[in-house]
Amino acid sequence: MITKKISQGLIYSVSFASLCATSALAQIDEIIVTAEKRAENIQDVSAAVTALNSDALAAAGIQDITRLENVVPGLRIGSSGGEVRPAMRGARTNEVGVAGTGIAEQVVGIFLDGVYVPTTTAGMGTYLDVERIEVLRGPQGTLYGRNTFAGTINVITNKPVIGEQTNSMKITLGDYARSDAQAVINIPLSDSSALRVAASSEKRDGYVENINVSGTSDDLKEKSQMFVRATYLKEAGDNEFLIRYEYSNKDANSDAIWGYQQLAGYQAGTAIQGHIYGSYTPTAPYTGESPYRVNRNAVSFDEQETNSLTLQGKFAADAMDTKVTLNYSKLSGSQYYDSDYTPAGADIYGGFGRQDDHETISAEVQFTSNGEGPLSWVGGLYYFDQEADWEWLSSSDTDGDGNPDVIRVPSWGNPNEDMHTVKSTAIYGQATYELNDMTRLIGGMRFNDDEKTFTGNIADWEDDATTYKLAFERDIDEDRMFYASLSTGVRTGGANDGRTVARGAPENYDNEEVTSMEVGLKSVLMDNTLVLNVAAYSNEYEDVKAQLFALACSDATDNNVAACVAAGTATSFEYYQNGGDSETTGLEIEMQYAPNDRLYITGNLAFTDAEFDSDYTVGNQYINPLFGLGNYQNRQTGNLFNMGGMKPAFSPEISASFSAAYSYDAFGGTLTPAILFNWLDDYYTFDVNLPETLQESHTKTDLRVTWKNDTGLTLEAFVLNVEDEAVLARTVVHSQRVAGTSINSVQANWNPPQTVGFSMGLEF
To answer: Going by C-beta distance under 8 Å and a sequence separation of 6 or more, which residues neighbour residue 121?
Structure first.
C-alpha cells in the first residue's frame, strides 16, 4: 500500500496544477479522496479515479459540469438546452428531465457532498467554493447504487474552517457581455463552530444570435443565474454536525429543454437539408442559419429555481464511525421554445415546453470500521424518495385569429397534475482484507429495490437488483500497485407513456445491467515527480435501452394516427425499448509530471472500442420509429431496424489531452502561462449513426495566463476554444409526420464558440 506524505498542495489530476502559487512543490504529493466512502490515498484505490482540487478546477475554467470532459479521460459531457447528458466508457445518457416516460436516469451518477443529484437539470448547477471533484470511471453499483452505471462524479464543497476568518472575491468579465461575480466568507463563531457562505452571480448574452429581432434581447444560450450556499459546522471532540443550505435561480431567454436546431429531414431514406416544420418544407434551404445563428419568432425561456437542505452528523467510536446524511431538495422550473424552429406564424406564443416540480428526500446511514487488524469495511443503509409533478406546455388561440396567443397546459389525455414518483431502498457493504503487507482482497455487495408509480395513462413499474464488486490489489513496491476487479452496475428501467403503448411501444422497459472487468497499474516514479496510471477494461452491457419516438394521438380519444393527423391532435412522443446488448473495451492512461518547482505537465489518452451487438434491434410488429430512414444500410426489415455495429453516442475511439503550465517570477509576483489541448477522434452524437449525427475529429485549445502575488491578488486572462470550432453537443433522430409522410428529422445543438475573458480575484 502506497503510504507517502499527504499534501493538499498538488493533486493527482489531468488538469493544470496550482503552479500560480508563489512557490510550487518540487514533487507531486499524494492526496486523500473518499471515492470508496472512506478516506484513503488516491493511489490506493483499486479503480480508475481522477481527482481535481480547487486550483486545478479554476485553472481549467471548470465552473460547472460541462468542462470536466476536457480533463478526465473517457468522459464526455453532452448537453441539450438546460440538461446534462454525461457519457463514459460506451454508456450514454439519452433521456433528460421528466416526461411521459418518467424521471430521467443518467448513466453517470452525480453526487454533491455525498447526496445524489436527482435530475439532469440540477446536474448543470454551479461549481462554487469546491474543495475537489472525484470522477470514478466504471460501474460503482456497490457503494453508490442506482444510476452509477458508467461511473460517478463526486463534488465535495469546502466545509467551514473553525478558528479562521477568511474572505475572497472574484470578478470575471468577457465577451458576450459576460459579467460574473462571486464571494466566499468564512466566519468563526466559537472555538468549536464556524459558518461559511459562498455566493455568485453569472450573466452573459446569448451566443446564438436570433436574427428575427435586432439586438440581443432574444438571442439564445444566454445566462442569468445566481447561487448561494451557507454551511454551518459544529465540532464536539471527534464528532461533528453540519447544516448546508443551497439556493439557485435561473431566468434566461434560453432555447430551453432540448435546445435543438434543424439539420435535415429523412424521407424514404433520402436526407434533404432544411426545415420540416411550419411553412418550411424539407426542400427549403436554411435561411442564413448556422450553429450560432437562428431565425425564430416564438418566445423562448428557461426558468429554474432550486432549494436544497442537508443535515449531516458524524459520530466516532472505538470500533466504528457512523455518518448520517439527510437531504431535502426541490426543483421548480418551466421551459419553452419555438417548436418549429422557424419564423413561421404570426404570433410569438406558438411553441412547446414543459413545467415541472421535483421534491426529493434521501437518507443514508454509513458505518466505517476503525479496527487496527487486517479487516476493514464500510456499509450502510440508503433511502430515496422523489416526486415530480410535470406538465407539457403548449399554446392556444383564444381570440380566434388563427395565431396562438397564450401558453397553456394541454390535457393530452393526462390529468392536470401528472405525478411521477420514484422510491429506492438499499443495503450495502464492502470489505478489504489484508493477506499480508503487500496483498489485499476486496469484496462488496448491494441490494437495491426500486419502484416507480405514475398517474394518468402510464403503468407502474418496480424491480430489484443486486450489484457487487470483487477486487485484488498487489503492491509491486512502495511506489507501484497492480489491481484487478470485477464489478457490476444497474440503471433502472421504467414505463412508457400510454399513448405510445397504444401505438405499439412496450409498456415497460427493463433495468440495464453492466458487468465490468478492469486491470490497472498505479505508479509514483522518479522521486515523486511522475505519476503514471493505466487502466484497461472490458464492459458488457445488457438490455441497453434505445431512445425512440412515435407519432401518437395527443387527445387520447382516437388511436387512429391518420385521423389524429387530420384533426391536428397528433404529436410525436418519446418512448424507450430494450434493444439488446453492447460491448466496450478500452485503455486509459493518465500522467502528471513535475520535474521542478516551476513546470507542471499532464496528459491523458483514452482508447475506446464500443458498439452495439449484431442483434441490437428497435421497432416491433406494430411500430417503426425509424421509417423515414428507409432501408438505410440494409438495416430495415419490415418495422424492425437493426443497429448492430453502430457506435453508442459520445464514444470516440481515441481521445487525448495535454496541458502544461510554467511559473516564473515577474512584476512582483508569479506569472503562469498555461495551455490545455484536446484532440478527439470522430464520434457520433446519437445512437443512430447517420452522417448528420457525426462529429468529425477536432482539436480544442484553451490558453490562460495567471499572475498572483503574496497579498492574495490574482489576475487572469483566458481564451477558450481558440480554434472557434462548432462542436456538436448532442443530436437526435426524431420521428414526425409532415404532409402525410413519415419523416425522421435530425436535430442538433453545439458547444460554445470561442470566448475570451479577464478575471480579478482577491483573498484577504
So the answer is: 82, 83, 96, 97, 304, 331, 333
Whole-number Å distance between alpha carbons of 560 and 243: 55
Find the angle CA(316)-CA(116)-CA(485) to the nearest 5 degrees. 80
Q: Which helix (H) or strand (E) holds 535?
A: strand 530-553
Q: What is the pLDDT of residue 150?
A: 94
| H or E segment to which residue 735 belongs | strand 728-738
Q: Provide the number of structural domains found in the chain.
A: 1
More reliable by pLDDT, 574 or 109 = 109
Q: Identify the CATH number of the domain in which residue 120 sits.
A: 2.40.170.20
Task: Give the sheet arrangement for strand 636-637, strand by strand.
Answer: 617-618, 640-642, 636-637
Taking the CA atoms of the chain, what radius of gyration do you get in angstroms? 26
Q: Which residue reads 470566448 in cell numbers?
A: 755
What 3-state class would DSSP assign to 404? Answer: coil
| Any domain includes 484 | yes
pLDDT over threshold 60, residue 281:
no
Q: How confident is the model at residue 237 (pLDDT cuts 50, 70, 90)?
A: very high
Q: Which three cell numbers stand for residue 528?
A: 515523486
Closest alpha carbon to 123 in 102, 100, 103, 145: 103
**pLDDT of 15 higher than 80:** no
Tell me the sheet residues that pair with 255.
none
Q: Which three cell numbers stand for residue 666?
A: 515577474
Residue 15 lies in a domain: no
Residue the block writes with cell 461575480: 181
Asked whether residue 11 is assigned to any structural domain, the reply reads: no
Which pLDDT does position 615 carry in this prediction?
A: 94
Q: Provide the β-strand partners of residue 552.
A: 571
Residue 13 has pLDDT above 50, yes or no: no
Q: 327 is written with which cell numbers?
A: 437531504
Question: If pLDDT is split at 50, 70 and 90, which confidence band does 16 have?
Answer: very low
The three grid cell numbers given for residue 719, joined into one nine-digit string: 481564451
d(CA 601, CA 319): 43
3 band by pLDDT with thresholds 50, 70 and 90: very low
- Rounded to 5 degrees, φ, ψ at 44 are -100, 5
Buried-exposed string 494-533: b where 16+ CB fall within 10 A, e elsewhere: bbbbbbbbbbbbbebbbbbbbbbebebebbbeeebbbbbb
Q: Is the dihedral of CA 442, 447, 452, 458 positive or negative?
A: positive
Strands (E), 158-222: 166-174, 178-190, 193-204, 209-210
Q: Which three cell numbers stand for residue 500?
A: 405510445
| Number of CB atoms found within 10 A of residue 557's CB | 11
Q: Coil, strand, or helix at residue 668?
A: coil
In a domain, 12, yes or no: no
| CA end-to-end distance (rounded Å), the chain | 40
Range of 661's domain?
A: 32-763
